[in-house]
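Reviewers of the previous submission asked for a worked example of the structure-prediction workflow described in the proposal, so we include one complete record here. The input consisted solely of the amino acid sequence. No template or homolog information was supplied to the procedure at any stage.
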Amino acid sequence: MLETATCGPITRIHLARTVLGRPLYTVNAFLVDGLLIDSGCPATGAELVAWCRGRDVCRVVNTHHHEDHSGGDYALQKKLNLPIAASAKTCSILADFYRLELYRRIVWGRPRSVTAEPLGDVVQTEHYCFEVIPTPGHSPDHICFFEREQGWLFSGDLFVHEQIRYARPEDGPGRCALKAYRRARSQIGC
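From that input alone, the workflow returned the following structure tokens.
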């Protein structure tokens, strides 16, 4: 499933693997000024590639390594030759992606390793400058992208829900996520 909605210069790309026409689990990617922020899951990679064809997508950046945010990277890199960038921690995981548990492969698909370049402190597009803010908590490699002049924060999974239904052990304790959330709020002036 791939659905889009546009708000000014930002296109939200709503992605999900479906079973019998029903989405298993949804995730969002965003396109702004040629920059694709996150790439969804491996199971929706072909749909995302088809959608990106003919659009002005210049590169992909990932908020973290989880397969529902970086899983489309392989298809985008292979089919469209798009460069991928992420935090240094994310790059090392993406280069040799680990084997997922069965339920994760069923829900999102099997991610494939990609070559990604480490990000600096900012991501510059033609019209915008996104600050890269480390926000470990949901995952140790999690980052956010903040466009200060516009007040846009692309937060990946920094804030998932008021009540977490499940958490993976490797994602770290909830206290770490809360600290990351508070740290990000102070950095963006909330």
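The chain has six helices and eleven strands. We consider this example representative of the routine output the project will generate in years two and three.
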